[in-house]
Structure formats: C-alpha cells, structure tokens
Amino acid sequence: MEKIMANVAGALIGALWFSCALAAEPAAWDETTFETDRSLTEEMESIDQAVTADAWNIRNGCVPLRSVRRIEFVDDQTAIITLFGKKKVVLRLQRVCPGIKRNGFLHENRGHRLCEGFDRFTVLGGSMTSCRVESLEPYITIEAAEPEGKP
C-alpha cells in the first residue's frame, strides 16, 4: 500500500510540475502578434505598389535631364538625384569611383536623358576616373510611426 501511495504522490508531483512549467512559458503566438505582422505586411505591400519607377519619371532606366534639379554624391558610388517636385532618385555607379564625392564630377550623357548602363560620371581633378551608371531607383524615406494615443 505504501508503494502505491508513493507512486500516486510521484505522479501528482510530476503532473503539478508539468502544468507549472506550461503556465510559466510565454505564449509564442497570439492574435495581436498576427494582427501586427499582417498590418506591417499590408503596409509594405502598399508602399511597394505606390513606389513605381514610372511615378518617379524613370522610364526604361532613364530620367529626363530636364527633371533633374541636383545630383549630390553621398559616397563614392551612390548619389541622390533631386528632381523638380519632391521626388528623389538613387543613382548607383557600377563600381566605386574614388574622389567623386570630394572632388566633383563631369556628367557624360547621350541625348537629353540620364540613363543606367550608358551614362558616365568622370571625377574632376588629377585622376579623371570615369564610372558608368549601374541603376536608377526611386528614393523613399520611411517615417517613424508615432505610438497610438499620442499627438
């Protein structure tokens, strides 16, 4: 009889320990997690649909030069093109073009457009290194969302 009671007590302690362990473990999934993730996914999809090359006046990998207000290199391979209006375009060169940000550049183009794969930028100064445009992509800034309930 003592052996049976010991086995029953052991089983009860084991069941109690197991239920405590489950209760202490945080929930890995709940509906708020799903809603937050889904909302973020929907937001990203809407941005993707709104940001098209045509909306930035990029057609066939080219931007009309009459649309360009300013070209400013942020490093030796990447420039931000400010267009008339509020839109901007990211210009990437095929390779690093040493000194282009610091020394300035000369833009070599064909026609009245700035085109990826054809147009070149030459570094002013001693090196006169020339670099071809690799890509032109819409530039967007992601604004930080304010927490709900705060003005």
Account of the protein in words:
The protein has 151 residues and is of the alpha+beta class. It is built from 3 helices and 8 strands; from the N terminus they run H-H-E-E-E-E-H-E-E-E-E. It has helices at 2-24, 31-50, 100-103, and strands spanning 62-64, 68-73, 78-83, 88-93, 105-108, 113-115, 120-123, 130-139. It has a 6-stranded antiparallel β-sheet. A two-stranded antiparallel ribbon has the order 1-6. A hairpin with a 4-residue loop joins strand 2 (68-73) and strand 3. The longest helix has 23 residues, at 2-24. The model is unreliable at 1-36 (pLDDT under 50).
Proportion of residues in β-strands: 25-35%
Count the DSSP helices: 3
Tell how many strands the DSSP assignment holds. 8
Rounded to the nearest angstrom, the distance between the terminal CA atoms is 70 Å
Overall form: globular
Outline of this structure?
This protein has helices at 2-24, 31-50, 100-103; strands at residues 62-64, 68-73, 78-83, 88-93, 105-108, 113-115, 120-123, 130-139. With 151 residues, it is an alpha+beta fold.
Give the SSE map.
Blueprint: H1 2-24, H2 31-50, E1 62-64, E2 68-73, E3 78-83, E4 88-93, H3 100-103, E5 105-108, E6 113-115, E7 120-123, E8 130-139
Antiparallel strand pairs: 1-6, 2-3, 3-4, 4-8, 5-7, 7-8
